[in-house]
Predict the structure of Uridine phosphorylase.
Amino acid sequence: MSLLPILRVDPKDMPELAIVCGDPFRAEIISQQLEQVKELAYSREYRTFTGEYKGVRIAVVSHGVGSPGAAVCFEEMVKAGVKTIIRVGTAGSLSDRYKTGSLIISTAAVREEGLTRQLVPIAFPAVADSKVTDALYEAALEANAPGAVGKGITLTMDAFFSGVVELPHAIYRQAGVLAVEMEIAALYVVALLRGIRAGAILALDGDSTAVDEGYDPHRSIVAEAVDAEIRAALGALVKLAEQP
Ligand SMILES: O=P(O)(O)O[C@H]1O[C@H](CO)[C@@H](O)[C@H]1O
Ligand SMILES: O=c1cc[nH]c(=O)[nH]1
């Protein structure tokens, strides 16, 4: 079979279990936890590695920033036969309880991005797979994160910095949404429409309302939280490999 047109990977090389993340450099960091690692392709923002973790074959793929580009990646992964995807990302806090360094497992995503309404009406819910969520939560509790571990609804946006229109963060904070990022709604909608399992874990890198003033995701507490979420995601995939 020919290569996937955008990821530039041979579908037969893609395992059924995968981790995705925005940053191609983070994909490389995650791949360093694997044995028998191979970098299959680096095409646009999409960097694909495969390897084994505790005897389980997994892929690690970067999807870039924003839902439209990320959805292209998820769709091609599904076409290649991937059956379980976990997103390992960063997010801004919307909650007084979970601050920088905390980990959030996303049980569902508010669809404030523009992509998924072009796939299915906006009333359709973007929800995670419950087995993936449970496996992630259990693994996160044991991952020694520098902050608290929580699970709940997250917000997916297209805008990162604000313009002249007020962003809806305060409304969703009031509604109990825990964190904001930019791709989970796309992941959950694509997964639900194509019949695969998906979940997501997020390391909080600051207060979402402060990104316009000075966003700094390069602090050591964020790096520690990202390390912890990587351990949690790998542990969850091993558990999920036993529960197809
Ligand atoms: O940490 P990652 O996976 O890149 O995710 C978050 O970081 C990016 C913004 O800086 C967006 O892609 C957002 O969703
Ligand atoms: O989308 C994002 C990602 C990280 N941190 C934020 O505040 N927003």
Q: What stands out?
A: The CA atoms of residues 17 and 58 lie 5 Å apart. The longest strand covers residues 197-207.
